[in-house]
Description:
Blueprint: E1 2-3, E2 10-27, E3 33-35, E4 44-46, E5 50-64, E6 73-76, H1 96-102, E7 107-111, H2 136-142, H3 171-175, H4 186-200, E8 203-208, H5 211-221, E9 226-232, E10 253-257, H6 269-286, E11 291-295, H7 314-328
Parallel strand pairs: 6-7, 6-8, 8-9, 9-10, 10-11
Antiparallel strand pairs: 1-2, 2-5, 3-4, 5-7
Helix pairs in contact: 4-5
Amino acid sequence: MALSNDDGGIHVREVGSYFVGGKSITLADAPSRDAFVAAGRSPARVDPNGDFETGQVYVQFVRLARPRSSLPLLMWHGGGLTGVSFETTPDGRPGWQQQFLAGGHDVHLADGFGGGRASWQRYPEISQAEPLFRTKQELWELFRIGPAGSYATDPAKRRPYPDTQFPVAAFDRFVKQVVPRFRTYDQSTQAGYNALVAQVGPNVVLTHSAAGPLGFASTIAAPDLVRAHVAIEPSGAPDPDSVDLKRLSRIPHLIIWGDRLGLNEPGNSWTELYTSTRRFHDALRKAGGKSTWIDLPSEGYRGNSHMIMMDRNSRQVSNLINSWLKENVND
Length: 331
């Protein structure tokens, strides 16, 4: 079949999905309890004990009829999000999945453990941590769509940054895709992504936000398989003193940051993440590795939010990444 786009169509060989990673666990000796069923109905007695699968990653793939790259692109979403981040944008434009297919890569979109179709563990019997639900205000401010105090329940009263690239009219549609976040799942998610890398074979990993540290770790663990890592506003990076950077000497990295990070503002939450990633980047280059650092405002891209793949200039940024891949990755 062919998916029509501005590049004359994407000719697809196969669309499908699979699960990878995870393990079986047995829950025993947990007490039975009453659980709410529905309004007007008596609670149901629930026995939570038994065998479960946990830690799995869900992957949707699209394989091209004639890929121009032999390296599939693995796309890993941020915290409290899913692979849909890279599909159609909230305001209906083609997302990065389509842009990188047009660039000649097969694309594998992952839902990390606890997100989307990857499911999650029983709470509180297995997972001790309560699922976290971000409010619209928290997302609006944390993702830098508007300054502190600019969110309002009434969309007409919201005050975004005047130059924001985020499609503000589609903010409520974006929030529909947000899922609970589990802060105790990092180890399981890392194991799942490592299993994904091993199953797919040689690849390029593109990560966003909380998936950034997972992508760095997977690259360090399998530098023979991860041929490049593109990190979009990663939530930090490994301490360069704790890893063997020589293992990464042949693996090109591209690290991209948006606008209005507020790095000079006291207590800004982005400062530590930006600084730790910069430390890793500088150390990798000093060790002879390849790492490209792009602050989008320095390149003339103003107003980008944390959700760069959804911003109104997202296609321009994906073109930048595609060009970097062609220049820096041998496949």
